[in-house]
Amino acid sequence: MRFGKIDYLNLLPFDIFIKGYPTPSSFKQCLNHRKSYPAKLNKDFFLRRIDAGFISSLAGYASWRKKQVTPCAIIGNAKVLSVLVLLQEKEGIDTQSATSNALCQVLGLKGQVLIGDNALRFYYKPQPKPEFVDLATLWHQKTGLPFVFGRFCYQAHGAFYQEMAKAFYKRPVKIPHYILEQRAKMSGLTRAQILHYLKHILYRVRPKEEFSLRCFYRQVRLKRATRPKRF
């Protein structure tokens, strides 16, 4: 079993959960070696270097059509804080996330795309700062729906990953103080900022989130937004 993981703060609760979840030792070893950013995991997934992971929603389209997805995802609940577009900056994509770049195209925005810790540091930095848009907020304003940034997809061992996903969103996760301290130092954020950010992230896919994905995929086709490729 080869699981790939995004090394971002939005999956910090999953990091805590998986340490206590019963898995083969080989799974845990692979988990520690397959941490990366979304675009890299997309490629690993396409090339079958990993069996499963939280894959960019855009890259997970084929898995969604094949029903090789779990009811678990990374969801921005009206806000996400970690996926922003700086409107007054020179236009530019973020090479680490295909879904964020496509969403920017779908929403008709031009500017510099920021994701992950870089976006959070910008969001929490004191004024003044350039005008920016939270992509989950704009999507919610236009559709009334939350936005699904990444989906827990799989290509093998479906029953195992389905059970894992359900166990994750059903079990409340408390982040230990020492881990918050570690991640605060690594990210350049405070513990309070990390906890505030995580309040805006949901993980369970319900009908509203499924409908949001359908709307996004339709807009990607209509706008001919750039999709991740195998090579």
UniProtKB/TrEMBL annotation:
Name its pathway.
Quinol/quinone metabolism; menaquinone biosynthesis
Pfam families assigned to the protein according to its UniProt record, in alphabetical order: VitK2_biosynth (PF02621)
Task: Write down the EC number.
Answer: 4.2.1.151
Per the record, what are the reactions this protein catalyses? chorismate = 3-[(1-carboxyvinyl)-oxy]benzoate + H2O
- Write down the InterPro entries for this protein, in alphabetical order: Menaquinone_biosynth, MqnA
Which Gene3D superfamilies does the UniProt entry name for this protein? Periplasmic binding protein-like II
Source organism's superkingdom? Bacteria
Primary enzyme class: lyase
**Keywords of this protein's UniProt record, alphabetized?**
Lyase, Menaquinone biosynthesis
The job of this chain, per UniProt, is described as:
Catalyzes the dehydration of chorismate into 3-[(1-carboxyvinyl)oxy]benzoate, a step in the biosynthesis of menaquinone (MK, vitamin K2).
Give the protein family.
Belongs to the MqnA/MqnD family. MqnA subfamily.
HAMAP family in the record, alphabetically? Answer: MqnA
Protein name, UniProt field:
Chorismate dehydratase
- Organism from which the protein derives: Helicobacter gastrocanis
